[in-house]
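hiii so um. not sure if this is the right channel but i have a protein structure encoded as tokens and i wanna go backwards to a sequence. like what aa goes where. can anyone help
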């Protein structure tokens, strides 16, 4: 029997096979390495772009005055280091914010630069919105429809509390009560914050000789919005005499002004019209003269639509027949109105616009508004609100790895705009 011997593979054969294997594997390994590098680069790019979006949102949502304040700006860029503002003056218009952060799993250092340049955008309707009663505090009363009711109530109080038992029998004594003046106060309060929602309330009070009566014609809460406040105003009449009127705004219940967004302030409008809104309100009363609360929403829709049309007509046809107020050269229902604030507020946070004017004998417009406490720089004509020019900032963001940024146009990471929060 003949034996067969397996002599195995020679070294030369092994080397040749290994060389062939390596030649075949080089493209695969190279492709794998490239894929890994591309994936890492893509993740790094996505992380950088995501952070650029965060920076842009921070700039859009932060109060513009705080972004231009070197003592406050860093609070809006948590996790960043070496945050600087140029220029540092709070009243400057254009500004630049620079800083650095660490991104990705390897925490590579990235530097960023945010440049905000002031531009301007004119809106024909100004800051007056579309009068949606679910987005704006549209107080649906011309306060004069409470005047007669309050007059009767207070006179009744006086009669009931009188010490003269013959007062009910003496027509002259009763008639003399009809010559008494009264004070009428309108107080509008706003409380809450952007995060929790804002509640707007209105309190209407009448007072004479220590006696008073209070009505609360309006209360509504607005979520995720800073509502405009609209007051439909008529001069007060009590016992056929003009009342001493005061309109007061109380913003002390607002817990935070952060996150106000584009407008970044509260706007109130005191609007007197030439049309009789009281007749509209009468249509929503019960047969006994009380207000039908179940139809409140319907009433606000009707009134807001009418007011919207009046404002638009007044704006587009200022010289036409429709006007937003009655003109008079003397007294009567054109008595002055004192507008005051219950607490001091910055003029950049709160502004009251009104159309309470009359034309004097020389043809000059005279304001019927008397400025009360805390309102020195907060009151303007409603014309300014209809023709406002909003400040708009063009915002550019650069983010680059390393300790510095090349801010050339082709290297911009993200661009956008934000409202300036101020009106000229």
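sure thing!! here u go:
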């Amino acid at each position: 029997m003949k034996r067969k011997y397996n002599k195995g593979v020679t070294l030369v054969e092994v080397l040749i096979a290994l060389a062939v294997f390596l030649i075949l594997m080089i493209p695969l390994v190279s492709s794998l390495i490239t894929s890994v590098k591309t994936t890492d680069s893509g993740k790094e790019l996505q992380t950088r772009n995501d952070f650029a979006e965060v920076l842009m949102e921070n700039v859009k949502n932060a109060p513009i005055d705080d972004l231009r304040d070197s003592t406050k700006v860093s609070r809006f860029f948590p996790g960043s280091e070496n945050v600087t503002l140029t220029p540092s003056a709070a009243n400057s218009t254009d500004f630049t914010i620079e800083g650095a952060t660490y991104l990705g799993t390897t925490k590579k250092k990235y530097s960023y630069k945010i440049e905000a340049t002031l531009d301007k955008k004119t809106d024909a309707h100004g800051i007056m919105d579309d009068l949606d009663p679910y987005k704006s505090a549209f107080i649906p009363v011309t306060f004069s429809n409470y005047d007669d009711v309050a007059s009767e109530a207070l006179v009744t109080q006086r009669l009931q509390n009188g010490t003269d038992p013959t007062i009910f029998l003496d027509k002259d004594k009763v008639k003399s009560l009809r010559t008494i003046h009264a004070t009428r106060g309108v107080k509008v309060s706003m409380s809450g914050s952007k995060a929790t929602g804002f509640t707007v309330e209105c309190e209407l009070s009448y007072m004479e000789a220590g006696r008073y009566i209070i009505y609360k014609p309006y209360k509504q809460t607005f979520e995720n919005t800073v509502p405009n406040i609209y007051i439909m105003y008529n001069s007060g009449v009590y016992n056929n005499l003009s009342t001493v009127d005061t309109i007061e705004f109380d913003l002390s219940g607002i817990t935070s002004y952060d996150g106000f967004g584009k407008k970044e302030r509260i706007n109130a409008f005191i609007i007197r019209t030439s049309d009789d809104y009281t007749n509209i309100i009468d249509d929503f009363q019960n047969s006994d003269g009380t207000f039908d609360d179940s139809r409140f929403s319907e009433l606000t829709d009707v009134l807001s639509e009418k007011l919207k049309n009046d404002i638009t007509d007044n704006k587009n046809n200022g010289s036409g027949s429709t006007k937003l107020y009655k003109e008079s050269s003397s007294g009567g229902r054109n008595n002055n109105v004192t507008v005051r604030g219950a607490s001091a507020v910055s003029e950049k946070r709160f502004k009251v616009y009104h159309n309470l004017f009359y034309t004097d004998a020389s043809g000059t417009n005279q304001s019927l508004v008397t400025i009360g406490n805390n309102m020195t720089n907060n009151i303007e004509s409603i014309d300014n609100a209809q023709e406002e020019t909003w400040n708009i900032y063009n915002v550019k963001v650069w983010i680059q790895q390393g300790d510095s940024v090349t801010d050339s146009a082709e290297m911009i990471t993200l661009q956008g705009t934000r409202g300036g929060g101020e009106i000229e």
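oh and Residues 163-171, 317-321, 326-333 have pLDDT under 50 and may be disordered.
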